[in-house]
Amino acid sequence: MTQAQYASFTKVSVKTLRNIEKGNTDPRISMVNKRLKPDGFQLSARKLSRKVG
């Protein structure tokens, strides 16, 4: 699969995909999930409670 085909498949623009792969941008979690979804993965984040002191 070419980069353009993969971008189309994951519904991400080719420019955005290139910038992510080159490290020129920090993608949002939703963007990362678009790239991971075809392989059955999902990224999530949650706040951890910490006690200070």
Question: Keywords, please?
Answer:
53 residues; 45% helix; mainly alpha
Describe the structure.
This protein is mostly helical. It has helices at residues 3-9, 14-22, 29-36. Helix content is 45%, strand content 0%. The longest helix is centred in the middle third of the chain and has 9 residues, at 14-22. The mean pLDDT is 88.
Low-pLDDT segments, ≥5 res:
none
What's the multimeric state?
A: single chain
* Coarse morphology: elongated
Proportion of strand residues: under 5%
Give helix and strand order, one letter per element, not per position: HHH
Supply Rg.
15 Å
Say how many strands there are.
Answer: 0
User: Roughly how many Å apart are the termini?
Assistant: 53 Å
| Classification by helices and strands | mainly alpha
| Average of per-residue pLDDT values | 88
User: What is the tally of helical segments?
Assistant: 3
What is the helical fraction, as a range of percent?
40-55%
Largest sheet: none
Give a topology summary.
Blueprint: H1 3-9, H2 14-22, H3 29-36
Concise account of the structure shown:
The chain is mainly α.
